[in-house]
Design goal:
Order of helices and strands: EEHHHH
Structural class: mainly alpha
Number of strands: 2
CATH topology: Non-ribosomal Peptide Synthetase Peptidyl Carrier Protein, Chain A
Oligomer: single chain
Strand order of the largest sheet: 1-2
CATH superfamily: ACP-like
Radius of gyration: 12 Å
CATH class: Mainly Alpha
Strand content: 5-15%
Helix content: 40-55%
CATH architecture: Orthogonal Bundle
Shape: globular
Distance between the termini: 9 Å
Length: about 90
């Protein structure tokens, strides 16, 4: 599945990488530490960091991403990123 972000097509894999980059930069985490099975707690990401991460994602992709449902219930990085990517792709469909 692909979405159009700022007029450009974007594949899910590219979207995932961009979300991971935002998590690394906003959470001040070395990118190599961010693995699919790591939890946000493992990475020492606080709730305020999650809010900042989502704000940057909203600005970058022009989409509202509330902290509810699948995003709030995410147990690891993979489920968090997948839920955020789903929101972005759904908003672009």
């Amino acid at each position: 599945m692909e979405a159009r972000i700022h007029g450009k097509a974007i594949e899910r894999n590219d979207l995932t990488e961009q979300i991971l980059d935002v998590i690394a930069s906003e959470g001040k985490i070395e990118r190599s530490r961010i693995t699919p099975d790591a939890t946000l707690q493992d990475l020492e990401v606080e709730s305020v960091d999650v809010v900042m991460i989502l704000m940057v994602i909203e600005e970058k992709f022009g989409v509202y991403v509330p902290i509810d449902g699948a995003i709030a219930d995410s147990k690891d990085v993979q489920s968090f990123v997948s839920s955020v990517a789903d929101r972005i792709l759904e908003s672009r469909a």
